[in-house]
Amino acid sequence: MADADDVRRLALALPQVTEIDSDGFDFRVGDKGFVWSYPERNPGRPRVIRTDIAVLYVGDEAEKQALLLGEPGTFFTTPAYDGLPLVLLRLAEVDVARLTELVTDAWRMRAPEALVGDLDPNGVSR
């Protein structure tokens, strides 16, 4: 079972990642977000930052649908994310190894190409 501390540790281990000051977690590479805590919005209520759910960049609609359909207990979406290459990830449903893969893949899709070449296939800087 993964948690917000795991997200933080994994994201900050990647090259040139910055954490944006927030009530949860929010990580960027090259000024592009790749994983952040879910800002849950319910009508008539204030927004709540959910650190047990991560918003994860997945690249495109096909990958998004594959995750949503293949693992509906782990990944979900809301109408606010329709048309965006983002999924919501229930952190308690993944182990740290899977979270490492997901966070690293999101980073790879958002990082400048020169940085991606500096990372080996296991997500470790060379």
TrEMBL record:
InterPro entries for the chain: YjbR/MT2646/Rv2570-like (IPR058532)
Source organism superkingdom: Bacteria
Protein name: YjbR protein
